[in-house]
Design goal:
This is DUF317 domain-containing protein. It comes from Streptomyces thermocoprophilus. By secondary structure, the chain is an alpha+beta fold. Strand 1 and strand 2 form a beta hairpin.
């Protein structure tokens, strides 16, 4: 069934308006952490039980803050890649309730785009 608009607007179907289920909740951080090998990365767990992962060249950083990163409003994950003299780096943040599956996908893509020099 399609509902036609009476004037300016859009038309849609009943099927398109049906509710969806979305992945919610923080999930398992191991989905993210299992992507890192001891050969290429250092892993440190601090006294707050926050986890920090650094590439051995120091240009990649991942922080997991299960209770929120100190000084932020609920930041749970931080990804940072340091730039070069010619190209700026970048940072990505996710809150504590972002599903680990989503963070794992972002980390996987960042790692896929890295190259040994």
């Amino acid at each position: 069934m399609t509902a036609a608009p009476q004037g300016p607007g859009f038309s849609t179907s009943v099927e398109a308006l049906r509710l969806r289920e979305w992945l919610l909740g923080p999930g398992q951080a191991t989905l993210v952490m299992d992507q890192f090998s001891a050969d290429d990365f250092h892993l440190v767990v601090d006294d707050r039980a926050d986890v920090h992962v650094n590439s051995k060249d120091g240009r990649f950083y991942l922080g997991w803050f299960p209770l929120g990163r100190p000084g932020t409003d609920g930041e749970g994950w931080k990804i940072a890649v340091t730039g070069t003299a010619k190209v700026r780096g970048y940072q990505i943040s996710f809150d504590t309730e972002t599903p680990a599956d989503v963070v794992a996908a972002a980390v996987a893509r960042v790692l896929e785009t890295s190259q040994r020099v």
